[in-house]
Amino acid sequence: MIYFFPGRPRPERTEAITEGEPMGSLGFWRLAQADPGWVAAVDPDGTEHTAGELLARANRLVHGLRGLGLGTGDGVCGLVPNGVDGLVLYLAALQAGWYYTPVNWHLTGPEIGYIVADSEAKAFFVHERYAGEGARAADEAGLDPARRFAFGDVPGFRPVGELVDGQPDALPADRSNGATMHYTSGTTGRPKGVRRALAGMDPDDSYELQTFLLSLFGMTPGRPAGGQPQAHLVTSPNYHTAVTQFGGCALHMGHTLVYMDRWDAEECLRLIDRYSITRSRRPSGLRKTTSLTNSLAHRTTWLRSDLSMKWAIHAAAPCPVPLKQKMLDWWGDCIWEYYAATEGGGTIASPEDWRKHPGTVGKAWPISELLIVDDDGIEVPRGTPGTIYMKMAGVDFEYKGDREKTERNRLRGYFTVGDIGYLTDDGFLFLSDRKADMIISGGANIYPAEIENEIILHPKVADVAVFGIPDEEWGEQIKAVVEPAPGVAPGPALAEEILRSLEGRLARMKWPRSIDFIDAMPREPNGKLLKRKLRAPYWEGRESVI
After folding, report:
1. Cβ(287)–Cβ(474) under 8 Å?
2. Which residues contact 538 (CB under 8 A, 6 or more apart)?
3. How far apart are CA 501 and CA 362, in angstroms?
4. Tell me: the pLDDT tens digits for 67-82?
């Protein structure tokens, strides 16, 4: 993941917000009232939206949904592209005490419908770009037509205008802080929402909660009096947990959000030049940014001497040491890295840290702790690989509706997502393996069991294994190994037939990039698949298998 944050001139505030102003004095709602003319967001088409406009839209949405009976602790889902529509949903939820779930728009209707139903959403918002799958999802979830709302034209959905037109612009009464509830998963079963208890506090007093993440990287609220504002370039899908959190943090700090519709290297460089970008993050990993921008090295917009980049933050997809070293040499010491999970907790590595410890993902956050254990749950010595467990002080979570899974991934108050790594004597974490079979491709978590469960339904497939193999651009790509049914000839025609059978049942982002065939799957006498034996040849010569 990589983030970019920019700053550019805008009209002076009536009450100047100075850089480094004490926590609690800011927050979007206070800022928007003090300076409604502040350009708080820029859509991918270049349309600018003031803070006053966003505040009014969020307020009207709260009033409208409360009219439908939504109360504290209820949830809403949004199937919307990057831009202010999703931002308004986020802002409304965060001041009305609701859970907001942004949904991955690559998913199919049934997959989306499961999330809408499981989250118990009381309202579902769909952009016309995703009308087809959005409608299938609403039907799959059995959602009341009166609670289906459209940005644009979506058959069977009410225009958002019907919900908000005529509603007051004023702040709603009885405001309380809400939260996002993103969906994540393990290697088996369907995804689960990561749900945290709501604090029940006034949104204006939750500023520290909303801005903690960026403060870890040394970023400050506001801007120097009379100077340029800061802003955040959103280059990746806003349904990612970190993208939502980083963007929200930036907005509450008084920074402008500039949205890209999709990743494009040339457009990214243009925006860096246009908005004097100083900070960015992308969930598709530093590797992809490297490969795509290398070909543009001759462009003066990128190589100009006053390049404004101060923070380029990445995570999720692993980056080979030589590639990151090249980027540091090219961009300078502005590239930060972190390791974290939707569930909470993590590490951070400054450019200086990484240069001293090439390959590290950093040291634990000030309020986070790490524990490395063996298969028996016993802490291992420094330098010894083991399962990585984390916890964050004062922050707890549950997988919504799945107490068994919540407890299964815990150990003495810590949780794990199944990664393997080790700590150095001075506390730096290195990732070395992945216990779980989860694939990270372009920063997206992809779960093999879900793909295997679809492929095995094909009548010509006797057995299947899915895992990640190296991909210099995406980190990993999805590989399927298939044992054909008796009498079925393997080959390209069968591979194509299997892939086409996934149409409408599985998001294309989850389709294997390639399929190999095998006479018989390697299994233990008890039937356990030896997936590592299948995967090993593809990772031969690598220091790690992620």
Report:
1. yes
2. 469, 470, 479
3. 43
4. 999 999 999 999 999 9
Tokens describing residue 163:
């919900």
Task: Check which CATH number belongs to the domain holding 156 and give it.
Answer: 3.40.50.12780
The count of other CB atoms within 10 Å of the CB of residue 344 is: 20
The gap between the terminal CA atoms of the chain, to the nearest Å, is: 15
Encode burial over 227-242: b for 16+ CB neighbours within 10 A, e otherwise: eebbbbbbbbbbbbbb
Cβ–Cβ under 8 Å, residues 105 and 52: no
User: Are the C-beta atoms of residues 514 and 479 closer than 8 Å to each other?
Assistant: yes
Q: What is the CATH number of the domain that holds 417?
A: 2.30.38.10
pLDDT 10s digits, 297-310: 434 444 443 456 67
pLDDT in tens, 1-58: 444 333 333 333 333 334 444 334 578 999 999 999 988 999 999 999 999 999 999 9
On whether residue 532 sits in a domain, the answer given is: yes
E runs forming strands in 25-120? 39-42, 48-50, 75-79, 99-102
Rounded Cα gap, residues 413 and 255, in angstroms = 35
Q: What pLDDT, in 10s, does the model give residues 229-286?
A: 677 888 888 998 888 988 998 898 888 899 999 877 778 878 877 776 666 665 445 5
Single-letter amino acid code for the residue at 478:
I
Same domain, residue pair 207 and 227: yes
